Amino acid sequence: MKIVARDIPPRAAWALEQAGVHPLLARLYAARGVRAKDELDDGLARLLPPSGEKGLKGIDSAARLLADAMAQNKRLVIVADYDCDGATACAVGVRGLRLLGAQHVDYLVPDRVTDGYGLTAPIARRVAERGADVLITVDNGIASVDGVAEAKALGLTVVVTDHHLPGPELPVADAIVNPNQPGCTFESKSMAGVGVMFYVLLALRAELRARGVFDATTQPKLDPLLTLVALGTVADVVKLDANNRRLVAQGLKRIRAGQMPAGVAALFTAAGRKAPVATTFDFGFALGPRINAAGRLADMTLGIECLLTDDAGRAAELAGLLDGINRERREIEGGMRDQAMLMAESLFQEDEEPPPAISVFDPDFHEGVVGIVASRIKDKLHRPTFVFAASSAPGKEHELKGSGRSIPGFHLRDALDLVAKRHPGVLLKFGGHAMAAGCTVAEEAFEVFERALAQVAQEWLDAATLTRRIETDGPLAPEYCRADMVDTLHHEVWGQGFAPPTFSEEVQIVSQRLVGESKNHLSIKLMHQGNPVDAIWFGHTEQLPARVLLAFRLDVNEWKGERKVQFLVEGAQI
Description:
39% of the residues lie in helices and 20% in strands. The chain has helices spanning 10-18, 23-31, 59-71, 84-99, 121-129, 145-153, 193-210, 226-235, 242-256, 262-271, 280-297, 301-308, 312-345, 370-381, 412-422, 446-460, 483-491; strands at residues 2-5, 76-79, 105-108, 134-138, 157-161, 175-177, 358-361, 385-390, 399-405, 427-432, 436-442, 469-472, 503-515, 521-528, 531-537, 547-559, 562-573. A hairpin with a 2-residue loop joins β16 (547-559) and β17 (562-573).
């Protein structure tokens, strides 16, 4: 492991501090590319415009089609995805269309096991059977060439809203809104599916305003939907560029003020988190996983209904169900993770480096959590990792469904593409991005895939890339080691591409012991610049030397009314 400090441009840090930004925040923001205070303005007026020269390609066409459909009282059906981004995008679409006057809005969410991902031809037929006139995809559709073709053949108007990378062929939809489609000049390429749907609603409202349905004073407010936009954006781990940070900040402000749907409030309660001091951490590690669990182990309809209901009692009931499913997911994941880790570690000797890529399969693995387990192995061994489970889909029992997670410098989707070209027929299906991808292989082809992926990794990865690096913000001045300063940091918007503050410096270890039910966490007492501080390293059991370079985040430990700063250790360079 190598701990490296981020470069902090002194001019940018100085300019931010001179503009009134707190000195520590000025340093953190400058290291993340912020050059002027106005870039930190999270007001709604600073959001990128939906339409115009630099707006989203296809959004005006989508707005016109939806406005026409609403004027003719047509039936709209949203086809969602089974993750948190898809669920929040669906809820935003249903709520927003109804707010704007649509009388007939329904939704359908595919089943992870039986339907697979995206708008397929069978799903298009199910939508038509519901009597729909217009099919709207959220968080999917850009690769659904056959599904869109089937929907069109059935006489449906199709509006695709998505954010994923398109394939070589675009679906022939009536309108496509996706910042990553060819020819789209919209600046924020990292918007989540829920953000794209929110923008479509903004454009639809403008279209309805132009048609005289309402004016600027009577138009419905769409900003209550920002709580769901913020949740889906963080949970989907998209890059928090300036526009996404504004969307998330706006959602957080409303939640902290108690302005949120009943389901979001119920999820905070079920997760034991406090909405008045909500953070991006709550979205990514408390609410998001509870919604995702429904899509992994049960039916994402539960998650969407929780986000749609305005009845507090019903919301509490659904949030409780989601919490229970998430507990079950954690139990399944825990057993799978231990088994998969043993299998991964059996691939190399204790004194050896792990292989350049890791693939594991067990007939007892659950396909709903293979991605999470792959992520855990990748985090521990710092290798591109695929975990496979036997398909549960009828007639597909001899197929393995795999989910992969990668490390910086290894584009997982491109690696799968090369495997497919070198070994035709091994990959029955694949897709994804640089850091996460999925694929399907025949069970008898697993070993061929395992060797082929390792070969690509051997060719593409060097020693530097295979060494885990932790980027930090350097030393923490002792005057900032205060509970109120930690509160200030937690209040800001951090996430993918705008990393939460992590500090590093050499400390003296005073004492250390293993804690937790399984004795798998290291509790540490240390001296930080002459001051005693408690620290904990979750999931780590090896003892540290007397002096060590630590990378750590800040947290507050509350005990009997006293609030003390605690270090959460991210890594050590020995």
